[in-house]
Amino acid sequence: MRPALWVDGCLVTYVELRIETARLAAVISAVLPNDTDVTGRQCGLLVSRSRAAYASVLGTLFAGCTYVPLNPRFPTDRLLAVLGASDIDVVIADEASMAAAAALIPAFPRPLTVSLSEASRFPDWATEARHHHFACRDDIERIAPAV
């Protein structure tokens, strides 16, 4: 197994990174209608410098979309403005960014698909955001089993 990344004190192999990337790309692709041209489509990445961040960037690009970085340290109003000005359909949030997601996602009026690839269950704040669709780790594994 060849190392691809060393992040958060852990070694990530190319195989592991490919599996995570393919799963996230499948989630992004599943959200877009089949007849949609993905050119110009955007995916918001609410991630810190983590393993999920690298997989999210690659997964977004693999799905044929561009990514919009959403810095979890920015104020919620600023993140809402970025979301409102973009054509984001999917937001990927990592575990370290859950506090920012809890403030941002329920406050955003347009429906989004929110990928929580590191979460084993839906967070409590997801019940406040019923107009959004959430995908946790188990959902993502069902949509895109390991390749």
Please tell me about this protein's structure.
The chain is of the alpha/beta class. It has one domain: Rossmann fold (3-Layer(aba) Sandwich), CATH 3.40.50.980. Helix content is 37%, strand content 22%. It has helices at 14-31, 51-62, 76-85, 98-104, 137-143, and strands at residues 3-7, 10-13, 42-46, 66-69, 88-93, 113-116, 133-136. Strands 4-3-5-6-7 form a 5-stranded parallel β-sheet, sandwiched between helices. A hairpin with a 2-residue loop joins strand 1 and strand 2 (10-13). Helix 1 (14-31) crosses helix 2. The longest helix is centred in the first third of the chain and has 18 residues, at 14-31. It starts with a strand and ends with a helix.
- Structural class by helix and strand composition: alpha/beta
Tally of separate helices: 5
| Biggest sheet: strand arrangement | 4-3-5-6-7
Low-confidence stretches: none
- Fill in the CATH topology: Rossmann fold
Work out the count of structural domains.
Answer: 1
The level 1 CATH classification is Alpha Beta
Beta-strand share of residues = 15-25%
Shape: globular
Q: What is the averaged pLDDT score? A: 87
Tell me the span between the first and last alpha carbons. Answer: 16 Å
What's the helical proportion of residues?
25-40%
In the CATH hierarchy, what is the architecture at level 2? 3-Layer(aba) Sandwich
Oligomer, anyone?
Answer: single chain
What would you report as the Rg, rounded to the nearest angstrom?
14 Å
**Annotation, overall tally of beta strands:** 7
